[in-house]
Design a protein that fits this description.
Elements: H1 6-17, H2 24-27, E1 35-41, E2 46-52, E3 58-63, H3 68-75, E4 80-85, E5 88-93, H4 94-101, E6 103-106, E7 115-116, H5 117-130, E8 134-140, H6 142-157, E9 162-168, H7 176-181, E10 188-193, E11 213-218, E12 221-224, H8 228-234, H9 249-254
Parallel strand pairs: 3-8, 8-9, 9-10, 10-11
Antiparallel strand pairs: 1-2, 1-6, 2-3, 4-5, 6-7, 11-12
Helix pairs in contact: 4-6
Amino acid sequence: MKKLKRYQYERYAILCQLAYPDAEAHYRKILTPFYERHLVDRFGRMSVRILWVDNKKEVIVVFRGSLGVRDWLANLVFLPTKICQINQRFYVHWGFSRLLEQPMYSSTKTIDEALPLQTLLEKVLAPLRQQGKRFTFIGHSSGGAVAVLMANYFERKHANSVKRVVTFGQPAVGSRSWYKNYLLHHKTYRICCDLDIVTFMPPVPFYFWHVGKMLWLHDDQIYENTPTHERLFKSLRSWLLRPITYHYMRKYIRNKSLFDEH
């Protein structure tokens, strides 16, 4: 597995922050070199941002996390449901599988032309794939869950099409069968910050599994693949100090300096 460099971490973290409507004023200039397309939900909110540059092979696909009570309630429905990805079946979190099927329309279309997210995204990315570009899927929170689901689907359908997967504050996605059949463990970085409570979700021990390599940012250090019980033990004091704030993207961005030597 190649290391994730500081400049990559910083760029991906800021792009994840830019998936939210309140970040444009602070970070807009980072988007200057990119062409971009948006996928928009039925409420008119940008849910996916696709970014690329003509002279580079990487296309960055950014998935926004939850906005509002409706999204959070869906995330709490962690009943397992069976999905099929190119003749491979496994059980995943229902709340995240439904996000693959939510109606979306492109920034160049209208709401009347909405398609399921998975279908529309593949259609929008097809011309870029035909140009020989490869895809980096990134996301925060539930957006990270969708990123790993979509990345695995793309890799199954178009071998070697995925460059890497980077998620921030991502909850677990699927069962042991999902973990065993995930194709991108060696290209996936799951970044957790201190005691971000969402990274311990869903609260069903030994059923929902994380994928890829975990990088835990804690006490000005990076820990790799730290077991859950150890993370809880080391973070015990932090539990009393505003644990919800660890989930915000700005907390991840503040830790970008840790990637200098990683």
